[in-house]
## 1
Amino acid sequence: MQNDNSPTWPPRLAVQGGPRFLQIADALQAAVAEGSLKPGDRLLPQRQLAARLGVDLTTITRAYHEAKRRHLLEGRGARGTYVAAPKVELTSILDLSMNTPPPPDGVDFDDLLKQGLAQVLMRADTELLMTYHLGGGSDSDRKAGAKWLEPMFGYLDARQVVVCPGAQAAIAALILALTEPGDVILAEPASYPGLRAAGTQFGRRIIAVEVDKHGMAPTKLDQACRRHKPALIYLNPTLQNPTAITMPERRRKELATIAKRRNVRIVEDDPYWLLADGPPPPIATFAPEQVYYISTLSKCLTPGLRVAFVLIRDPDERERFLVALRSFALMAAPLTAALATQWILDGSADGLMEGVRKEARLRHRMARDILAGRYDGAGDGLHVWLELPGYWSSSQLARAAESEGLAVTPAEAFATGSGCVNAVRISLGSIKDRGRLQAGLQRLSQLLARRPESLGAAVV
């Protein structure tokens, strides 16, 4: 039977502690972790626990369902509900390589998804959800996009917003629409790998421009523009991927001024702006006609929506962009675009994003504590750029980490030129469970403290 003397089980529910069913599931998980509840212990029947905690039966049912999803409980029919034996993981890899949002703190994502889809199906014409949308999104989708971009730009004409199936598609379409084979695209030495992939595929040349502690250096950009006559400049100015640098406002203005003087367009890929703590205005505010601004939902909400918004002010250039986009990615899926629109317009997106933001900051604090002396993050966003001690190379560390059951991303994956920084990117959202993330970071910290020569090679 269960241990009623546990300090965590049954729990005391806090008024401001978030959804009660999650408080119950979290308390059960804590009791299992501390050993006061053990595999095989039988829990109180749901009605009895509901009466003891002063909640309704539905709350307990949802809590037990969540605990089963976490592999904490198992039902045994009429015999009741028991603490489950630990789940055997078939893979020991802890993935610190994929930049995805963490589970939102205090948000029941499953319930949010079900409610959002129910609202979409109730209010929308299902025929329209299953047909082609060639205009860069429906009117409602573009209005939602304009609302999504309000924190960055204030009021926008929704006709200036194009709905795309993700930021990668938007980048590729801009390259096709604005450049020709052989053209030069300027970027920072460590940049989003999707830029290099698209540029190489389309026969464009990616050339790196030197950076300083604030990002791309203005004098170096001016020299590169004079020398290479680029067709585009690619920038990711807020919590840059991978370095996590946020350009200050002055630097953004300087780069915009150079682009205008040299008559070079800028692709401003800004997926993390809404996760940052007080970020400067986008570069697009300083050169509205010069900059194409991309904001994806993949980093702030969830990648599964596959929705990004692109701000293109000139109507002729919007049409050129749409023609390029249709050549390989006809449209965003109407159903997920409608879900994104529903969440943005009814406020659910704000709650979900706040949950992601809170959880991300908690994870940054965890990384700062565990990687003390090596952590140099901003405290927000989804990743940390970890510069390595001289006895490790980034590729060497990535291989050693893999042998330790960790996946990290070496600097080479982001390189647009030679002379790449000796670093790895650590993504804090891809491991869903905080305990497993903590274990992964601790394992990484221990690995960093060792020298490569101390790692014995296995012979099998």
## 2
Amino acid sequence: MNAPESPSDPVVVGVISAPHGVRGTVRVKPTGEGRHLREGLSPVLRGEPRRILASRRTPKGFLVDFEGFGDRDAVEALRGEELTLDRSELDPPPEGEVYVADLPGLEVLDADSGERLGRIAETFETAAHEVLVVRGESASELYLPFTLEHVPEVDLLAGRILARPPEPDEG
């Protein structure tokens, strides 16, 4: 048996949410638009690369068939498991876009005043858009919608974003 493989620079491309049907298909919630949940790619699942045999988009995510799983019992225990790829395996993002996974750690500056607001500590997805959790020195948190209106500029090379936080009554 081979030792488990782990990407050296892992990026989560999806999370298995539930089995689907009786033939080993799983429902996967993508991180982002799901372009890395396609046939032929082999994301790491539980420490082992698993080739995607088939993938179809649905309104609730993707239905994915992995090599080595042939029935519902085999995939039942996979709920909540992350699918990762090494960053080198990712398609480059389209022009003007970034991977959300690249945002934590970036410095956040107010787009109007230039004042330092903190750093992106984490992100989470809502039905409408991603939200950036910005933590300042005083341990205060700012929840910043990751929209063009509120984040007009992302500069990965400079390690910063410009932000226009929502007004308190926009909440």
## 3
Amino acid sequence: MKALIGKKAPEFHAPAVINGNQIVEDFSLEQYLGKKYVVLFFYPMDFTFVCPTELHAFQEKLGEFEKRDVAVVGCSVDSEFSHFAWLNQDKNKGGIHGVKYPIVADFSKTIAENYGVLAADYLTNEEGELVATGAPVAYRGLFLIDKEGKIRHYVINDLPLGRNVDEAIRMVDALQHFEEFGEVCPANWSKGKDAMKATNEGVSGYLSKH
């Protein structure tokens, strides 16, 4: 997998459920270009165990993302109809009722493949048959995309490992701090803490030693 940092986020047009109750046939991240940052996260599958905890966690923090001018978008390899049914199932029954951000249907698995998070490889065997190795679902990938459509941060967890939504917010804060003040953010930095000035001389010196 080639690193996606600093590159344009792979484009896609796919069905999605928005506002928790409306299916749209042609959802794209292009609507956010020049307007909003995007946190695009992938999860393995609807109607599972860890996944609803993550989707609800993003919903609970949605106000924090929105006040930072960030659109949150979920995506899995399920169909839009599966998403819709899950959104209409109560939380206490394992559903995600109440989730309002868009959830994209990557039924062809091409979005997950283009973002490097598909947990399966497809090979042709000696009989010429196409076979899958691994689980044909998405790893728990999360991508922070800036207003120009470039990926500035991403992390990919294996299937059993749920992610930390507060860490996603911290990374948004770090990117926005850098964009506003030109300061770089050291280890364990959080909003309100001191950052560091990055001079051309300092960068050149670092590169010359490494």
